[in-house]
Specification:
This protein has one domain. Helix content is 63%, strand content 0%. The longest helix has 15 residues. The termini are far apart.
Length: 86
């Protein structure tokens, strides 16, 4: 799908100063869609064209998007590791 955005020329020039404006728009849309729950991590990775989960994690970290991680999840993982002998 192709998407056309109408942006006033003076604003487009300022936005272009930040780099590839098409990539900026794609990343902003993708990030907001992920934050709102409309995209999963695998879908976000595919949309942005990242080859690895690590690339996606770096992208999310750079945009201050962190997964919630509860104390209960930490305790459960620690119990699993102990059970496995680690």
């Amino acid at each position: 799908m192709n998407l056309v955005l109408r942006i006033p020329d003076d604003l487009a020039d300022r936005l272009r100063a930040g780099g590839d404006i098409e990539r900026q728009a794609l990343e902003a849309l993708a990030l907001e869609s992920y934050r709102s729950g409309r995209l999963t991590k695998p879908e976000l990775r595919r949309l942005l064209g990242f080859d690895t989960r690590m690339q996606l994690d770096e992208f999310l970290k750079a945009h201050n998007v962190f997964e919630s991680y509860t104390l209960a999840e930490f305790d459960r993982e620690q119990e699993d590791l102990q059970r496995l002998g680690f």
